[in-house]
Amino acid sequence: MKKILTTLASALLMTLVVSGCKTSPTGRTQITLYSDQKMSEMGVASFSQMKEQQAIESDKATNAYVQCIADQLIAQLPAEYANQQWEVVVFKEDSANAFALPGGKIGVHTGLLNVAKNQHQLAAVMGHEVGHVIAQHANERVSQNSLLQFGLQASNVALQMGDVQYRDAIMQGLGLGAQFGVALPFSRSHESEADIIGLDLMAKAGFEPQGSVDLWQNMAAASGGERPPEFMSTHPAPQSRIANLQNGMTKANALKNTAWQAGRKPQCK
Asked: Active site includes 129?
């Protein structure tokens, strides 16, 4: 019986993985088990809830500034994203953060405007967040969590049927292994990928790519150096991010020069 269950679980898992395989914009193989429509519905619902629960910035100049940067970035997205209706909201929130959700939603916290000192630095953050969307990272994370839960449940059933000693301790170990061995590194790979996608996107829009490096130097200074070890964090350390961005700077500067030659030179203030 145990062998049959294991075989069935493996077959089901393989079917899910094969049916959900895609390739990210950087060429990385990814597993996305949910439809674009489903992810958009989830993004729209989450954004609506945020707007109900959080204060929204009403200052016209601030909103126009953020919208200007968003418009420049959106114009350079692949057609299926550039042609959809995007909504940009500035939330009154002190944290230096921004986000983008499937369904064409972008949120920027007012606290970010204290760290991102100019349009180029803010474009780096917003480009990064939009990069998560076009790379379908949210779909990957939801899919990954579903597969991890499936695997842990299957392991628990097998241990129960085998009457294995110390089952609880083993399951706790498997859970920690999944967290530090899969989930967190997976998040770091998303962040690094979104950094490069965002870097190219802001350059195509005509923003200065160097603004991305300047932004993360500001972020590092603002954090005061208080960070968990990188292997325990969902985000790469600032120095790792800066090195990753600098590696892509030659290509990004070439994209910026092309944008300038085409007349794309944003003046968002």
From this structure: yes
**pLDDT digit string, tens, across residues 37-90:** 888 898 899 999 999 999 999 999 999 999 999 999 999 999 999 999 999 999
- Whether pTM > 0.90 for this model: the answer is no
Secondary structure letter of residue 1 according to DSSP: -
Strand, helix or coil at 90? Answer: strand
| C-alpha neighbours within 13 Å on the C-beta side of residue 56 | 14
Tokens of 246: 């600098």
* Model confidence pLDDT, tens digit, residues 130-156: 999 998 887 888 777 666 665 545 544
Q: Is 140 exposed, middle or buried (0-12, 13-18, 19+ CB in 10 A)?
A: buried
The CA distance from 91 to 149, in Å, is 34
Q: How would you list the strands of the sheet with 105-109, edge to edge?
A: 87-91, 105-109, 98-101
- Neighbour tally for 237: CB within 10 Å: 16
Q: Is the dihedral of CA 153, 154, 157, 159 positive or negative?
A: negative
CB 69 within 8 A of CB 123: yes
Q: Which residues pair with 238 in a beta bridge?
A: none
Active-site residue, selected from the candidate residues 52, 80, 129, 140: 129
Q: Under a CB-based contact definition with an 8 Å cutoff, are residues 216 and 121 in contact?
A: no
